[in-house]
Amino acid sequence: MSTSNYPQLEGRNDQQLESLANKLATFRNINQEIGDQAVNDNSLINSLSNSFDSMLNNLKHTSGRLTRSLKSGSNIWRMVGLALLTFFILYNLYKFF
Q1: CA torsion sign, 24 to 27 to 33 to 39?
Q2: What single DSSP character describes residue 97?
Q3: How many CB atoms are located within 10 Å of the residue 41 CB?
Q4: Distance CA 15, CA 32 (A)
Q5: What is the number of structural domains in the chain?
Q6: Which domain holds residue 18?
Q7: pLDDT value at position 1?
């Protein structure tokens, strides 16, 4: 190889090495952004999961209280149902006459 081509090849290699270093830095930045976004998304998912767990527990407790109140006051609910039924029957009769 001639000595006159050596500086040109060395310069071209330096340019390619610099280009490769820039691409590697870009990939590192992208990888860091992906990692940060994954941490943020994981935190959001955990928060949503905790919210849904809390909502499910509240729903279970409310359902239990409703069941207990329906069992303890079945006569009251029958009277309320009968009153509503009577109201709707009278209302429909009133509409027809």
Answers
A1: negative
A2: -
A3: 10
A4: 26
A5: 1
A6: 5-72
A7: 52
